Input
Amino acid sequence: MIRFFRENLRFLSAGMVLTLNSSFGQTFFISIFAAQIMSIHGLSNGEWGLIYTAGTTASAVVMFWAGALTDRFRARTLAWFIMPGLAMTCLTMALSTSIASLLGTVFFLRFLGQGMIYQMASVSMARWFLARRGMALSVAGMGIAAGQAVFPVAAAALLLTIDWQSIWIASSVFILMCFPLVLWLLGRERTPQSLAQENTSVGMEGRHWTRAEVLRSGFFWTLVPLLLGPPAWGTALLFQQVHIAQVKGWPLIEYLALLPVMTIVSVGAMLGTGALIDRFGSGRLLQVFPLTWIAGFVILGAADTLALAFLAFVAFGFATGMQVTLITVFWAEYFGTRHIGAIKATSASIMVLGSAVGPGVSGFMIDFGFDFPQQMWGIALYFALSAALVCVAVERATTALPQTTSS
Output
């Protein structure tokens, strides 16, 4: 373990810094400013949710095509466009004065932050590492875990003393400060093409699946409900955190203090998941994965104290920690690594689409009189049904894996 970290510190650090910077396009950060955004633009919960949904949906469509660029270009080359673009978008959020500019800002935050910068990090880890792929993705995912633990609480605290626009300006500066570090860490990066030839691993039926073949596969479409679930309802959970605290009667700062709990658990879950994947394969863990979401939403829906909410966030920590590592490894294991960028882009676009649906649906349900804690019971049922589909599909597909990657 220590030798693995020492020999790969530079590559692993690049993944961590990239995922850390993706925080500024993630819902857990953007949603902190929901009240200020709705106030300055005169929006209701449903209208803000609709704008967020529209911008995120557009980013999902573009992501489907743009994500495949990671199969053609080095991460260092893509970073020159993505990181300065994300920094400029954070600045635009601070200066936004119209609905049109807000919609464009949401689009670029989601496309560059949630989408492309995270795509770069995860695809690079999946391609650069073979035997320890799960562990590498887990380590890289610590960046977003750190962002989730620090940035929302820091932003909420800063809002007590400075205006919200200044926080977005500071975010832009932070990204620009990280940019030279990322370029240096990726200075000795190998090209995707050379890696595709030297370090490939095949998927089902002993071959590399193309994106077109994946999209024609019934197996893939059976997994789509589960792909949509975590980003849709996990995003809604974070997007509606101000609303949840109000409905439950909890002080916002105390409720937000549970996010570090989720992060701490997610870090342990990431590392544990990485080790378990490397030993048992990703398929078995994918069958268990939905149960963590079910537990979290059932407990939080019923919670009347922050102590019970604490338990819910422990479950959410396991869920988010598993997700960071599990999905990317699953694609590499079952469909091969030669076209992993395009396949991961397809998965990412579906997940980004899910993150668009959650805030929109939950916002309109709130406007129609169903608060988000009430919605959690239906969300738990959704995950139960998707879990049943995944169990059957993975059980059949695992028999088609090469003997060396199955367990």
Remarks:
- The longest helix spans residues 99-128.
- The CA atoms of residues 134 and 305 lie 36 Å apart.
- The radius of gyration is 20 Å.
